[in-house]
Every structure is written in structure tokens, then in C-alpha cells.
Amino acid sequence: MIAVDEVRDKAAVVTGGASGIGFAMARKFLSEGMSVAIGDIEADALDDAVRALRGAAGSARVIGLRADVTAFDDVARLCHEAERTFGGLDVVCANAGVETGGRFLDVAPEAWRWVMDVNYFGTLNTARAALPILERSDEGHLVITGSLAGFASGTPFMTPYCATKMAIHGLAESLEVELRASASSVSVHLLAPGPVQSRMIDAERNAPAGVPINEDPERRRAMEDFRARQSAEGLPAAQVADLVVEAIGERRFFVLPHRERAVAALRRRLEWVETGRTPESRVAGT
Ligand SMILES: NC(=O)c1ccc[n+]([C@@H]2O[C@H](COP(=O)([O-])OP(=O)(O)OC[C@H]3O[C@@H](n4cnc5c(N)ncnc54)[C@H](O)[C@@H]3O)[C@@H](O)[C@H]2O)c1
């Protein structure tokens, strides 16, 4: 097993690094002695995050770039800039994500496309931009943020989010097996949490003009319930970041902050496959 402190003196990129899980990962990498480049679409939040991280670690080890993961060139620039500034790149976290939902026919095609663009194509862009650079490291790590929703198919009123997270899990699992088969120096890690304290519940703040927000009262009520549960039951993002660094150190693929819930979701899915009977509706953590 590789010791956790072997990630010291390395450099990391985190997309969606201005808030929540991404910010916590950036802070954890810095505390491990690494340098960090964060990218985000929210300019003010990015400035605040860079200032906070520099306050803790000094300005030489932190850079921030406005990078929209839906644009391949933005993510490529972020990765190249990190490699150039820090003399190498060892860890890339494809983390940026958004959520929208509601009753299936109430979700506009533009909203579907936005969630698919950020969550799925954003992850794909990041993986495609990062891999050739990570391959130049002795030991590269691509950390992909999925979700329990990527295991627990059948979450009502969250069809776009679930579809993207299942697609991301498929991408991460296939890529990891492909890289192992070709003896690549890069490992993939799939982070699949349940509820974590973050600003995810307000993800629609980043919806581009032209994406209609579903104001259906039932959807709004469900979101407020989720907000209450997330702040009451959600894990602190810092705990999730600790687990990510542990998994990198052990070269472990799955990072499961809610392991029992992940296993229960997969059991439920297997039973669905085996019996063909649709399970009772329930709302899972994102
Ligand atoms: N919070 C949870 O309960 C939870 C659970 C499972 C998975 N996740 C996943 O964790 C990841 C991080 O989310 P979070 O919970 O920290 O939420 P968050 O809203 O706090 O952070 C997400 C960050 O992504 C940024 N972002 C949004 N669109 C972007 C784009 N196009 N390009 C670049 N950056 C963009 C946001 O500005 C924000 O800083 C997401 O992939 C999310 O799906 C979250």
C-alpha cells in the first residue's frame, strides 16, 4: 500500500473548486503539501476561494482560473497552466456539477442539456484534457465525482441528475479498466457520495440564460426538504476530502463516504434486475 504522504510535493487541479467538495479537496491537497489550481465558472466565488486558500498556504502554491468545464479549451488551459506553474501535474479532480429536476415533463430540454453539458460532458472534457498530462507524471490520479445517484437508479424527480451520474460512473469504470489493461501510470478514482454540505442545492444559480428554472411548487418543496436534510445529515465536505486523499494514497478506485447506502442501493438495483419488479419510490441523496 502506498503511504498517504507520498502525495506530498505534487500538484492538483480541481474543477468546481470554488465551493463545497471541490474547495474542500483543494484545501486538503494543500494541507498535504501539494500545490493546487482551482477552476470555476463563478468569478467572485473563485476569487474568494483563491484568497482563502492562499491565506492558508501562501500564494506560490495556489492559482485560480475561470474555467467552464463545458468548454474543452477552458479545462485544457487550466491543466496546462497548472503543469507549467508547478512543474508537473499529478492529480486532476473532475468535480464540477449541477442539478436541476422536477416532474419529468416539467424539465425543459434546455435544462436537460445544461445538466448533461456540465456533469457529463464537463467530466469527459476534463478527463480528455487531463489524461495526456497526467501520463507525464510518475503516478497520475484522475478523481471523478459521481454520486450515490449513479448507483441508485430510479430516483423520482431527479431524472437529469441521475442520468448524468450513471453516465459518469460508466465512463469512470470503463476508463479505469482500460487504463489498468494498458498498464497506464494513471489511476481513476470514483467519488460517489450521498448528501454532503455544500451549495449544490442552489446549483441553478449557475444556469445560463435561456435555461428555464422549474418553479413547480412541488419541486420547490422537495428542494427545501432536501436542503433541510442536507444541512442536518450531510457530511462535512472536509471529511469527503480526507477520504479522497486516503484513496489516492491507496490507489483505490471507489471513494464511498456513504458506503452502506451505496451497497444498499446496488442490492436494491440487483433485486430489480433479478425480479423485474419496480421497487417503491424513494428519494435518494444526490
Ligand atoms: N453535495 C452533495 O450532496 C453531493 C452529493 C453527491 C455528489 N455531489 C457532487 O459533488 C460535486 C461538487 O458539488 P458540491 O456539492 O460541492 O456543490 P457546490 O455547488 O458547492 O460546488 C459546485 C461548484 O461547481 C461550480 N460549477 C458549476 N457549473 C460549472 C461549470 N460549468 N464549470 C465549472 N464550474 C462549475 C460551481 O460554481 C461550484 O463552485 C458535483 O459533481 C455534485 O454532483 C454532491
Automatic annotation (TrEMBL):
<dbReference type="Pfam" id="PF00106">
    <property type="entry name" value="adh_short"/>
</dbReference>
<protein>
    <submittedName>
        <fullName>NAD(P)-dependent dehydrogenase (Short-subunit alcohol dehydrogenase family)</fullName>
    </submittedName>
</protein>
<comment type="similarity">
    <text>Belongs to the short-chain dehydrogenases/reductases (SDR) family.</text>
</comment>
<keyword id="KW-0560">Oxidoreductase</keyword>
<dbReference type="InterPro" id="IPR002347">
    <property type="entry name" value="SDR_fam"/>
</dbReference>
<dbReference type="InterPro" id="IPR036291">
    <property type="entry name" value="NAD(P)-bd_dom_sf"/>
</dbReference>
